[in-house]
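Aim 2, interim progress. The first record below pairs a target sequence with its structure tokens.
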Amino acid sequence: MNSTAQELIGIVDGLPEDKAREVVDFARFLQQQAGDRQWERIPTEQRTDPKLEEFAAASLREGSAETLDPSKL
């Protein structure tokens, strides 16, 4: 366990139950925010995916397919 976690445990142990619960709720809020930022970052990345690129190239090599007819679906 790192020193920050140990410090937080010490602080929470010294609080009344209702205040300790508020600290836990806030920590979960921060955890969720960190996850949200990661998901928001993914679409803006400029990296390529080799498997996706390979799939796209293979699909283009197959040629164009006929247009789907909704009445035949």
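The second target in this work package is listed in the same format:
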Amino acid sequence: MANTLKEARAELALANRIAANEGVLDTFGHVSMRHPDNPNRYFLSRSSAPDMVTPDGLIEYDLDSQPVREPGMSQYSERVIHGEIYKARPDVMSVCHHHSPAFMPLIATSTDYVPVFHLGATGGIKPPYWDQHDEFGDTIMLVRTPEEGASLARALGQHRMVLMKRHGVTITGTSVQDCVYRAVQTCRNADFQVRALSIGKIASLTEGEVRLADEITGKTTGLTRSWNFWAMRVAKAGGIPAAPKKTRPAANPRKRAKSRRR
């Protein structure tokens, strides 16, 4: 986990790249992070493909999703998804909004998400659906206004995840790593669920199994082990550019000796 703001920003940039590399995010979609030192602020990338996010491209927002300072770069139109959830849920430290292909068969048919294996417990049982049309009628299907973002946050309630009809998924976490872990594992569960349905009837984890399986998330080495593995896969795929270290060239010992003699 990050210890400094600089490390936290680097972690968020990596989170976007991991989510892209693991098939959660495509050209669209984003992962954000509540400011570790100021709960009334959050960080989100400039408008960018997720596998191109860098620490320098992160923008700091207030909870009304207004940039704290002029960013001088393009911004995501759906940033209110993040701001309104942070506003409604003080316990949420990270948010991921995505349109993973694994989920789209469920989204297109309004089929409930069902945890079919233990890691799928990270999404809960039958997380709520949100239909933008119910409150706002015909739209361009993007969540761009504070009212739309607040409506989505109300539908999320105290759940970890909300499914968005004809759109995608928004999932939350208690940290950046926790959020990405839940996003990846729920996408895998959705894929397994859809494939299993083509064979026959599926069996869900019980409520007790979901609660117990979810409680150990972050309490064992599983989350850290997964993060390190996914980070390694990003590195193998091309990595994330690191800011060059500014170091002074080593002084020539002969020159130092001459200087002392003078």
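The chain has nine helices and seven strands. This observation will shape the mutagenesis plan for the next reporting period.
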